[in-house]
Amino acid sequence: MRVYNPKDWISLLLRPHQSSSFRLMFWLILIVCLFTLIVVYIEQDVLKLPLDHPLKNVLALQSFLGFAISILLVFRTNTAYDRWWEGRKLWGSLVNSSRNLAIKVGSIFSDNHEALNFYKESIPLFAHHLHLHLKKEKTRLMLDEVNHPMLELGDSKHLPNQVSKIIFQRTYEFYKQGQLSIDELRLILQELTNFVDVCGACERIKNTPIPYSYSAFIKKVVFFYIATMPFGLSFTLGYWSIPIVSLVFYVMLGMELVAEEIEDPFSGDENDIPMDKIAENIKKHVAEILNL
After folding, report:
1. Distance CA 106, CA 184 (A)
2. CA-CA distance, 197 to 123, in Å (whole number)?
3. Which of 85, 116, 212, 222 has its C-alpha lying 20 to 30 A from 235's C-alpha?
4. Helix extents (H) in the chain
């Protein structure tokens, strides 16, 4: 995720867009400019249409469509940001659960270094593999530094489930060995349950995109609006229609591209949630809590 100063207006205004989505915008705006140029040239220089030609009435249609499109784009952007913010809250919940679990096991197993070492490695491991799982990366880290045989992950594709299962199995072993009371076991299981809940909620966001019909409809309406705009503006603005149409298209296209970029907060784009950084912080904080 890009870190910036929201109060630095000069930097925000002068800094170019770096994402692939906005690089695509340049070519689309160029196409719109060429299209507008052709329309104005045909109407003004080839056909030489009079100022009272019926095509001028297209501007009336633009006013009605513009209001409807603005509402659709605002709703589209808000919906995408809600998904991004929900994803950030879920990872914040994972941070809190990881800290709480480390505090609980640190107090319960204060004299058991084997248990503390196990939780020191396994708690951050869940966040790390959840990060890889949500990015759909196939890489799987080998835990050479961990000697406990129960931390040897299998070949399953869903590594967060494996990690949570390993933590539960090892915790239940401690309970059967008499190192945990039933109340202490419940305290630990509360945090482990939240681990799985966070994973499922993140998968819901990842695997449930904005409905296709809604996204396609907005794109079609925007392009129809922009394609018809030069036909009416050319009568009053002439070749000045080119920058005007391009500016309107830039605003509408930009809002749609912003929504596309943030509606999946786990894909690893520039403006997505910094899951790798959060996972690193979890590892650091767990080690600090357990004094290891």
Report:
1. 12
2. 15
3. 222
4. 9-14, 20-41, 58-108, 113-134, 159-176, 182-207, 212-237, 241-262, 275-289
* Interacting residues of 180 by C-beta distance below 8 A, sequence separation 6+: 108, 171, 174, 188
Is residue 160 within 8 A of residue 133, CB to CB? The reply is yes
Residue 14 to residues 8, 10, 28, 36, 211, Cα–Cα distance (Å): 10, 6, 21, 27, 35
pLDDT by residue (tens digit) across 234-278? Answer: 888 888 999 999 999 998 888 888 888 888 898 877 778 999 999
Rounded-to-integer distance, Cα 44 and Cα 47, Å: 6
Q: What is the pLDDT of residue 149?
A: 43
- The three-point CA angle 173-175-180 to 5° equals 135
The domains of the chain are located at 21-84+209-262, 93-208+275-289
What is the C-alpha separation between 1 and 87, in angstroms, rounded?
A: 13
Listed range (8-17, 40-49, 186-195, 246-255) with the worst mean pLDDT? 8-17
